[in-house]
Write a structure and sequence with these properties.
Layout lengths: L18 H7 L23 E3 L16 E2 L3 E10 L2 E8 L4 E9 L5 H14 L7 E7 L2 E7 L5 E2 H6 L5 H20 L12 E3 L5 E3 L4 H6 L1 E3 L2 H18 L23 H4 L5 H10 L17 H10 L51 H37 L8 E2 L5 E2 L6 E2 L3 E5 L23 E2 L17 E20 L6 E8 L12 E8 L3 E21 L2 E2 L8 E2 L2 E8 L1
Antiparallel strand pairs: 1-11, 2-3, 3-4, 4-5, 5-7, 6-7, 8-9, 9-10, 12-13, 14-23, 15-17, 16-23, 17-20, 17-23, 18-19, 18-20, 21-22
Helix pairs in contact: 4-6, 4-9, 6-8
Amino acid sequence: MAERSTAAVDVADNSGDDPLTAKADKAAADGVAEAQDTADGSADNTDGERRTGGQPSRVTPELHSGHKLAKRYRLEECVTRLDGFSSWRAVDEKLRRAVGVHVLPANHPRARSVLAAARSSALLGDPRFVQVLDAVEENELVYVVHEWLPDATELTALLAAGPLEPHDAYQLVSQVSQAMAAAHREGLAHLRLTPGAVLRTSSGQWRIRGLAVNAALRGISAERPQRTDTEAIGALLYAALTQRWPYEDDAHGLSGLPKGVGLIAPDQVRAGVHRGLSEIAMRALANDGATASRQEPACTTPDELAKAVAAMPRIRPPEPEFPAPPDYQRTTYQQGTYGRPKPRPAATATQPTPMPPPPLQSRTGKALKWAVSALLIAALGLGSWQVADKLLDQPKAAEDPKPRQTTSTSGGGGQQKTRVPVPLKIQEAREYAPDGSPQNVNDVQKTYDNDSGSYWRTNYFLDGPELEPSIKQGVGIVYDLGADKDVSGVSIGLRYGGPHTTITLYAADSLSPSGSVDTMKKIASGQSSGTSLQVSTKEPVKSRYVLLWMTAMPYSAQDGYSGAGYKQAITDVKFTG
């Protein structure tokens, strides 16, 4: 099995570019390869763009997984190799967090413009953009370090599942247009606003990556940058509403419009599209200042687009759906009589009703009174006799050396105690990588933080589901239970389902075991093709440190964290003893 992080070279493919992109590519230098950029969005230029900087140098730095930049940024996985530069997922060992890194030779024709774009973007400091953290030139390399958002999802992945709800599409165009308006006020343009450059976080916030830097890496410029970015936002909204790309050619995993039909409104492409958002998309998709909408003027800048969105009635999120309540008896309060006196029945007779004698003054009452008295006397006598008998038996009970115990009987006729599982608290955890190539050291705590939405993730592999021992024996995490405990099992939440995930428990000697897995005591093993795994032992095993060792993982498609391949993510690890 080959691990994807060792080499991830993108294949040149311009089939997804729209006509505006093709127009820009004619101005590019001959021989420049164009490829889909997994980390920063697929290749897609907009009207008015042109390539600058000449043909890039083809000498790519000899970088590999594990290489360190500035003795701090350890490269983990190459996600793009294109036009003489490469993009990586890396780890900032100083701050113990995941980051993204763009690397290119210092003599690259676009190295200076990339540095300038990165430093300008870093000065903006707007949280709606993925932040540039560092921009450095050293050892004949230029590299740009930016935030890495593992739990954010690209718009590309969201649209693969279908068009967005009106509220989500409204938030998309509102937040992105406002962010780009703020950037243009500072003189910064994006020029590569594609579905891969826009991310939605778990809190619902939309963030934009690659401001100025993505265009500089590819030598893209525009005569009218505000018009270019505005039309790109319109294309994003159009795709969000219809799950179609607003040009004839397919792009970004989306089908284009029918040939020869031209640009038609989203509400004519798909039934049920919000009419106000359809109008906004058409106003943004203007060409040479002529609006595609016949009713409203074109929006030619992000600021104009943001104001147009703010002027439309706000679209509220859909109401949550609750299950129908079970049938129940309506109470007096629900029937509307709470606080009201109950109606009294009308009098039916005018003559006064004779009052009965007191209950115990009649002949029957007197007989009942004597019967009750006799029963009480008998009960008192019986109770006194039982108390006396109990007092006489106390010496015998004290002489009995074996008090009675309640036990459960097994099928074989013997007696055994029923063991009730007890939760074992995890004190600390650390990734275990005997080959020196860890997966995601900064997110280990996410496996036991009581948050089902956070995960520790592996890299993705090209072969599977069983890991090839000659390449990777396994991946794992060691958990510290604080003291020696009787471990009887573990439950594990998994992100990816499918055949299959295999995990084995081992008793380790520390958080950083010195020996290999072969030297550890095996506790139990389990396999699952779902999104959870339960591993239990026949008999409890006493250990303070327990290793979760994964040797097989299912295939899963590309997502916002990594590419397609055999991979797994772990959460909600809970031990019992």
